[in-house]
Amino acid sequence: MSNMKCEYCGRERDLKKINEVNWKRHVSSCKLKFKGGNKRLDTLNYFFKTTKPCITGILDLDISLNNDGKQLVNYPSASCSSFFNPTGISDSDVSLNNDGNDVQICSATQNESYSQINIEEDTSQLCCYPSDFPNDPAILPTTVSYELKNHFFSLGPCQPSALELKNKIFPQKKDSQGVMRSFHETYYHRKIEDGKFVKRLWLSYSPSQDRFYCITCKLFGLPKAKKTFLADKGSNDYKNIKRTIENHESFPEHLTSEMARVMYEKNVRIDTGMHERVNRKVAENRQIVSIVIDALIFSARQNIALRGHNEKHTSTNRGNFLELCSFISTYNPILKLHLEKLKENKINRLSFLSNVTQNKLLCILADMVRKDILKQVNKSGQFAVIIDTTTDVSNQEQLTVILRYIDEGKPQERLVALETASDSTGLGMFKVFCSITDKYNINWKTQMIAQTYDGAASMQGKYSGLKTRIQAENPKAMFTWCFAHKLNLVIVDTCDCCINTKTFFGNVGALIEFMRARKRTAAFVESQEILNPREQKRRIKRFSITRWTSHDRALVVIQEKYSALLKALENISKANDSDRNTTSTAKNFISVITSFQFILVLVLMRRIFSVSTEVSNYLQSKSIDFMQAIKMVNIAKNRLKILRTDEGCTEIINTAKEFATKNSLSQCDFKMVRARKKKIMPGELSRDEVLQSPTDLFRCDVCFKVLDAIITSIDTRFNDSQEILKDLSLLTPERMLSIKTKSELPSSAFEQLSNWIDIDTNKLQSEYLTFSNSLNDLFNDNYSTTTSIYNDKNNDRTDQPDFSSKISDDSEIEEVSTTKMSSLDILGLLSSHNLIAAFPNLYLAYKALCIIPASSASAERSFSKVKLVKSRLRSTIGQNRLESLLILSCERDIEIDRNEAIDIFAKSSDLLMQNLLFK
């Protein structure tokens, strides 16, 4: 009997399994393999010193069996690759180990030393958590949805290497024969007939359960394939793993699953291509809508009509909006192709050009602007409201709501709503105001600190006006009467204060109406062309009740173009084609305007309006604060007082004489009045009447009377504003610069202010004194900067008054010079120099002061926009469309994010969402 143990490999012969012939073959094979015939291999250390067995592309891990069947694992000292690379294994040497499994051996010789680990204990508990591997097949439920299938398919099969597992090895357990067995990475690949290895995409190992599955049958198999044990529960029979894998690969159900996987992958690629095409179309649609938005914004900001009378393709003028889109399409091929498809009447449910789309986009754009405004209001924490009403061209009462607040140290007045007020009473407007504030979440009961309206009884009525109803729920909402409206009432009082001014403005009004006729206007312009060919041609201006400076503008044209006006009247009176009424009226006007009395009143009113108009224009600025407004009114009153002196009256008379002489008038002075004698009756003393000169009569009955009336009207109408000033006068720059110590502060300093805006009085006094001691130096150091800021904030008015150039009194010059520093400048210093944290109470005080509106001119400006938008040809425009156009027109400086607008527009319907949102 042959030896029972191989002298080359050390294997013992099993008589029941190996016969004599096979044993001889085994010994001969070992002899050829190990040419050192007298060497006994108790271990495989000699083999590992000469060659490095590895699983190519997975890890440099050496596995074999020792003499007693225990698994030996040799770990190299160098780190190894963790993923399979099938391109690197085609030329490898592969042999079978004792249990018949494939073991691939690389022929590359290594010089590294390897440490040998004899694993004898059970390591079946070395499992990982499912969260470590998101594609773990064990966590896949029995019923798989389409989304879950797509997710697992995108992750691929779970094929971790040993280095990715816990303790860097696959879990091991003993089989029925006591042999330690485990899963191995070699099973991820299959050797085909030509000797190459291909990856098994269906084989998925579960690190959490130490089982291997068929992920293809689990995801794509038919019901019969899903019930196989590899797809349902998996297998951990590593003793028969090779036979199990080979048998499963030959099942028809598995092959059907593999075909289903391929078809699914192909469909996914088709979906991907479809998504690319859809997203390309979405990008084109978004570009078209972006152009539409730009056209809408342009039309809204230019106050031009969008729609035309005939919008058919055959029309020569389809309206501003469609014509503008057509013009832009010449420079945009995508829009041009879109318009050509629409013109060819191709089926297209989305044109993006209809009136419905226009209304939707306009509302979205206006809401975005309003949202930005309300965001700034909430950031400010305090605001004032300006409300006014007007009647539009369709005879509807329009109520506008303007909010004034401080944004980054600068005052802002923004339009937030325009609503129709069917009830113009105080209660009706209060209900509209409440509905607007509730609709846009405006917290007026706690954040509103001031309100400004005109002089209408429904606005400022003592018992049932809008002011009273708001103050009933918010007592801190201080009311101020619009300064510009009050100053206009002062001018109205002046025009009717004496018989001379009444006659003068009556004659001027009649002259204006007479010269407004077409032929007479042409005659007036022709006279200007003859007398002053290089000067600008002007036309007679009408008097207006709502235009506060209309009286001054009408008198300016008459005074500057007096000679042309006189020549035009003479030509009209002498024209052969003039009727008797025209000729007679023209001669009467010639006699009126050539009288010295008319010239005197003309010069007087021009001097008065030169003061009031400058103040009125300044009061209409958004950047003026309440203190500045009161100061300008007081300065105007003082200038009128200077004019009410004998010197001022004499200057007016001399100016009138020079004007009459310059224009070669027959009357260049007062008419000489004959001395009148009184008849002496019996018993009376004989005495002649005291002669009163025409100069004295003009001074007393006209000049002084008119000036007294306007000064008294200013005192009466602005008295309430002066009362408000008493509580806030400490915040004026003049008072702040004059107070240096706490003893100079009044005992009740800032009490009214603290009750108004809830501020700490003691802290405010301390901050006030500290800041006042350094204010002058701080302002002078930054004078150039503050001057530019001051100019920037007033650059919206080109007709700002320059009082310092027209005042001769030294005290008033000093007073005007202090206007270079205003409350807004102090607020700007606190904001720009990051002093808000250092002087928080002082900042709140000045912010509240600058929030108080001086006038409601912003509301009047919005009404001017209403008349431009809702014109006679657009009288049927909808209220929502009107409001949106008005907000876009008034608040044109607010930037609009086109992409955000398109996203909001796309979410308004499923069809738009499908065509405007990327997949």
Give the arrangement of secondary structure elements.
Elements (H helix, E strand, L loop, with lengths): L19 H14 L11 H6 L11 E4 L5 E5 L17 E4 L5 E4 L9 E4 L27 H10 L16 E3 L5 E3 L6 E3 L5 E3 L3 E4 L4 E4 H6 L2 H4 L2 H4 L8 H9 L2 H50 L18 H10 L3 H11 L11 H26 L2 E9 L5 E11 L2 E11 L5 H14 L4 H4 E6 L3 H4 L5 H8 L4 E4 L1 H13 L3 H17 L2 H14 L18 H11 L1 H13 L5 H14 L2 H24 L6 H18 L2 H17 L31 H24 L1 H10 L4 H6 L12 H7 L3 H21 L1 H11 L16 H8 L5 H10 L7 H12 L5 H13 L9 H12 L7 H9 L3 H7 L3
Parallel strand pairs: 12-15, 15-16
Antiparallel strand pairs: 1-2, 2-5, 3-4, 6-7, 8-9, 10-11, 12-13, 13-14
Helix pairs in contact: 8-9, 8-11, 9-10, 11-35, 11-36, 12-15, 16-22, 16-25, 18-20, 19-22, 20-21, 22-23, 22-24, 23-25, 29-33, 32-33, 34-35, 36-37
Give a verbal description of the structure.
The structure is a single chain. The two termini are 79 Å apart. Residues 36-126 and 783-819 have low confidence and may be disordered. The protein is α+β, with helices and mostly antiparallel strands and 919 residues long. Helix 18 (518-531) crosses helix 20 (562-574) and helix 19 (550-560) crosses helix 22. Helices cover 51% and strands 9% of the residues. It has a five-stranded mixed beta sheet. The longest helix is centred in the N-terminal third of the chain and has 50 residues, at 252-301.
Number of strands: 16
Major beta-sheet overview: 5 strands, mixed
Strands of the widest sheet, in order across it, are 14-13-12-15-16
The low-pLDDT segments are: 36-126, 783-819
Form type: elongated
Count of alpha/pi helices:
37
Rounded radius of gyration (Å): 49 Å
Structural class: alpha+beta
